[in-house]
Amino acid sequence: MSTATFLQPTETQFEGLIEHSFGQPESWKRVDQAYPEIEEQAWADTRREIGAIALDNTLQSQPTNNQNSSSTLMYAAKRAPYDIKSYRQTRTNVEKEIPERLLKVGLVSETFMEHEPGLGIVQDGRPIAEIYANSLRFARLQGEMLQRGSIEHKNAGVINQLADAGVLDEHDVLIMSLASTKKEVIERYGISEKYMAASLQLVSKDENEVICDTALVAGKKNPEAERDDIAAVIELARRHGIDIDTTNPAELLDIVILIPKGELSNGIAGVVEELDEIRGGTFYGQEGVAREDYARHAEQQRALKFEDIVDAITDILIQEAPTFKHPMQAVKRLGQLADYFTVQYSIENDNIDIDIFGPTSAKLIAKARKAFKEGDEMGVIELTSLAHDSSTNSSCPMDMSSGFDEYGSLNFDCPGCMSINTREPGKLLPNCKECNMEIPKCD
């Protein structure tokens, strides 16, 4: 198993970093400019992790010990029946998945973590660096999404070192993840063009407790409008003394911003409110939506738990965990279950925007809503299944490019080594590309 080792500054360097922080005016700062040594070390750790993963993939075609990493959902679900931390880890994955699927814009959520000096920031016992490393290790990201995955791993390393250096005792961290501008990426990874939602994250530390406060904001004011989120975040940064010379969303993600602690009384909602003012009075990026009290809205959003759905999916994942042979199996199964239950929820709740499921699924959900109101139980069951099968909704970008032909999906998992195989349309693969196992043919 390859794990990045984050080299920590010496005690003298810690003191220098803190003194450096206190010696500057209390304004927003870019970490790469204020603490270039931390940025450089985090990138070095990320490059080392990527190199180790590439070496593992080159040398081994069979499942490795990496697949049993304690930071994966598969491992947690397998241990959940007799380990409370693993159960919480499994449930946390589900808790994050559901609201992010149902509420593309306006969602505000919190993730609670702990800071353990020397180990970094951990969530349910999992180092955050290892969580992001799993995306690089198992998700088979390509192009811009691989670049983003690398940056997210680097950002985790930056936050770890800022916490160890004491910088987070005086500052919060702002990270802005905006949707891609590339058409091929938007289509391949199923990004909703209706919203082009951006994720804004504010990381704060109080003693050893670390909270990541996240808000989802529309990238454009209405479905027909041009995007204005990139210009807005650049203007936001400028107002607080930060110059940004790029309009590339991936490069914007690379910019980690320090905000003096206490400046944002409403947390991430305060950032959203200022962005809305810059955008001419929108609410979470949308025009024509009644503006609410930002603190109250954030509090209401954080209270959304979807307990019944979370309980059901968590139980199913734990029951099926013994059958999982590869970490991506658990992730894909979570996605399938979340999609089915959120389609069902949307049928019974008219306040959910069904366009998030894609045009084909949305039409079926609209019919299912009518059947539900008319008491047509069999119609609801049939339409729910069809809507689920045609849904393109997800909580985070997943590769949607595989497509289908007369034989089924162009992407499939090898039943032996569980590696992902991709075949050409109209052609079958006789053997797995990784382990050379003969692929059984369905009758």
Number of strands: 12
The largest β sheet comes out as:
8 strands, antiparallel
Question: Structural class per helix/strand content?
Answer: alpha+beta
Considering DSSP H and I runs of 4 or more, what fraction of the residues is helical?
40-55%
Order of helices and strands: HEHHHHEEEHHEHEEHHEHHHHHHEEEE
> How far from one another are the termini?
39 Å
Low-confidence stretches: 1-25, 59-68, 399-405
Note the overall shape: globular
Strand order of the largest sheet: 1-8-5-6-7-2-3-4
| Beta-strand content bin | 5-15%
- What Rg is obtained from the alpha carbons, in whole angstroms? 22 Å
Mean pLDDT: 85
Individual helix count: 16
Summarize the structure in words.
The chain is α+β, with helices and mostly antiparallel strands and 443 residues long. The chain is built from 16 helices and 12 strands. It has helices at 11-22, 31-34, 36-59, 73-79, 84-102, 128-138, 143-164, 183-188, 229-239, 249-253, 268-278, 294-302, 307-320, 327-348, 359-373, 377-390, and strands at 29-30, 108-116, 120-123, 126-127, 171-177, 198-206, 209-217, 257-260, 404-405, 408-409, 411-413, 420-422. The strands form 3 sheets. The protein has an 8-stranded antiparallel beta sheet with strand order 1-8-5-6-7-2-3-4. It has a two-stranded antiparallel sheet with strand order 9-10. A hairpin with a 2-residue loop joins strand 6 and strand 7. The longest helix has 24 residues, at 36-59. The protein is globular, with a radius of gyration of 22 Å. The model is unreliable at 1-25, 59-68 and 399-405 (pLDDT under 50).
